[in-house]
Amino acid sequence: MLRFLARRLGAAVVILLVLSFVVFFLQQVSPGDPARAYVGANASTATVDAEREQLGLDDPFFVQYGRFLAGAVTGDLGRSLRTRHAVTDDLQTYLPATAELVLAAFGLALVLAALFALSATRRWPGAAPLRGVLLVLASAPPFLLALVGIIVFFGRLGWLPAGGRGDYVDPGPTGMLVLDTLLHGQTDAFLDAVWHLVLPATVLAIAPAVAIGRIFRASLDGALETDYVRTARSKGLTERRVLAHHVVRNSVGPTLAMAGLQLGFMFAGVVVVEQVFSWPGIGNYLAASIPVADFPAIAGVTLVLGAVYVLTNTLVDLLQAVCDPRVVAE
């Protein structure tokens, strides 16, 4: 198990190093001058040259990359050319809102995936329309689902808000409004935060729910045809006990792998959803940074999202090893 853990962590480190190099290289070959972007378009050539020297942009490529990598390891991602704040401080401001949205959507996706798979495997009466609706919604792009959701549930029915996180100020300490208001016992603020979270989280959860549900259903169907399940049934175990103690556990491995992939994709796809719903997360921060060529901010967000994706899949590998010790021996 320790060797397996070391291999996975070593692979994660290598991937993150490659990601950092690619991000830095793309930043170097991208059009635009970071020094001029920092001092302003009307600055003199002498001012731009002085700023470029101060930022170390005249140093050799690998010297700049080494400085960039050392800063990333220590949490120094540079200073945003747009906000004039440290990128790390900006991420601390915007990342909790994104994490709250993605985690809520991921939890909802797991629930919908379980309903999708179990209803098909157990042939629950009346569940076919639910699966059909999920399949249709999953085929639509998230921005279209978001716009339709706003039109129907805000414009027509008036049931849900159109965007934002709510009218209450986050009391801290996590930056996740739902969790913080719950910890402080602010019932009205908690309900308001949940109410604002429902529509964007649902839009973000639909496609991952179907992807995870399909894998889970296929795994369940395969496990139900195995010899050990037939043996368990022949011993007189109820169908519920067979499903809970024999089928589900042996179906979790592939489902965990797909869930890890989908969680990473959700962090990437949240950019569009945040823009549509005016959600103050790193998606909006990134969208505002791209038009002005704010390279430090773009690189910082890319590295954070990449790290989340890699670490999530490393954690999934470890969970798979716990659920199925045969994975360690491979």
How would you describe what is shown here?
Pfam families: BPD_transp_1, BPD_transp_1_N. This protein is mostly helical and 330 residues long. It has a domain of 203 residues: MetI-like fold (Orthogonal Bundle). It has 14 helices and no strands. Helix 5 packs antiparallel against helix 11, helix 7 crosses helix 9 and helix 10 crosses helix 11. The longest helix has 38 residues. 34% of the residues are buried. The mean pLDDT is 81.
Overall body shape: globular
The first-to-last residue Cα distance is 11 Å
Q: List SSEs in N-to-C order.
A: HHHHHHHHHHHHHH
CATH superfamily of one domain: MetI-like
Low-confidence stretches: none
CATH architecture of one domain: Orthogonal Bundle
Strand portion, in percent? under 5%
What average pLDDT do the residues reach?
81
The helical percent reads over 70%
Q: Which structural category do the helix and sheet elements fall into?
A: mainly alpha
Whole-number radius of gyration? 24 Å
Counting DSSP H or I runs of 4 or more residues, the number of helices is 14
The CATH class of one domain: Mainly Alpha
Keywords: Cell membrane, Membrane, Transmembrane, Transmembrane helix, Transport
Family: Belongs to the binding-protein-dependent transport system permease family.
Protein name: Peptide/nickel transport system permease protein
Subcellular location: Cell membrane
